[in-house]
Design brief:
Blueprint lengths: L1 E5 L7 H13 L3 E7 L1 H10 L6 H6 L12 H4 L5 H13 L12 E8 L4 E6 L7 H8 L9 E3 L2 E4 L9 H6 L4 E5 L24 E5 L14 H19 L1
Helix pairs in contact: 1-2, 1-8, 5-6
Length: 243
């Protein structure tokens, strides 16, 4: 069973969008995807057959600012990330719902339960609306003003406990995994305390797709040129891996 996991990496997930487009173009028989934080947006987008559209959706964020005084009241924060992420999700899946239970490919989204810092895994097979788990997986205090609860559980960024959820894929039966990371040496940020983790998982063969050289885009960089280059780098990295 082939699976793909995307590392959480804020705006650097533009690289993931390029990878997803290349995987969709090749029509690989992917059965499972997974991600945390911004990586979860790409994982669910690919599972929902939106892989080819992800670069254009990501490019639509170009030039945006993370501070908005105009929406400070509705955001409950001067930072605009709550609005930016929600509007991006609505552009990807539709404004009303993201019910993906009938889709062929299953996607897993990791989030952190704030009460005890436990990893929670949400599946498109189970959730009638994936928007709340996705928003919870991306929620970062200060940058996001609107808190997220799913079934009464207060959620924060999934990268806090599992930023590249390979084990969740193995638990679902994956035996071959493409791990998409944004560092040129192929390592990943597994948690804030494991910053140079080399992707591996017991019970599965893991292949790493990573950029050839350090990405020019920063974590909170919405500049059009940086987003374009990161998308192109992701597309090229996937094509190079696939041969």
């Amino acid at each position: 069973m082939l699976a793909v996991a995307f590392e959480g990496c804020a705006c650097r997930a533009a690289f993931h969008a390029g990878v997803a487009a290349a995987l969709a173009e090749r029509a690989l028989p992917v059965a499972l995807t997974a991600g945390a934080s911004s990586g979860s947006l790409i994982a669910v987008g690919l599972a929902a057959d939106r892989g080819a559209a992800l670069p254009s959706i990501w490019r639509a964020l170009a030039g945006r600012r993370i501070v908005s005084w105009r929406r400070a009241l509705s955001n409950r924060s001067p930072f605009d990330m709550s609005h930016l992420v929600r509007s991006t999700l609505e552009a990807t899946f539709g404004a009303r719902t993201a019910d993906l239970r009938a889709h062929r490919v299953e996607a897993l989204v990791t989030a952190t339960r704030l009460r005890d810092l436990r990893r929670l895994v949400f599946s498109t097979r189970d959730e009638p609306d994936m928007l709340p788990p996705l928003l919870g997986s991306c929620f970062f205090p200060l940058l996001y003003g609107r808190t997220v609860r799913v079934r009464g559980q207060l959620l924060v960024d999934g990268g806090l406990v599992d930023n590249l959820p390979l084990e969740a894929l193995v638990e679902r039966g994956a035996r071959e995994i493409l791990a998409v990371t944004t560092r040129s040496d192929g390592t990943a940020l597994k948690t804030p305390w494991r910053k140079r983790w080399r992707p591996h998982a017991d019970g599965a063969k893991v292949h790493v797709i990573h950029p050839r050289a350090p990405l020019a885009i920063r974590s909170w960089d919405f500049s059009p040129g940086a987003i374009d280059r990161a998308i192109d780098d992701g597309y090229d990295a996937a094509r190079r891996f696939l041969g």
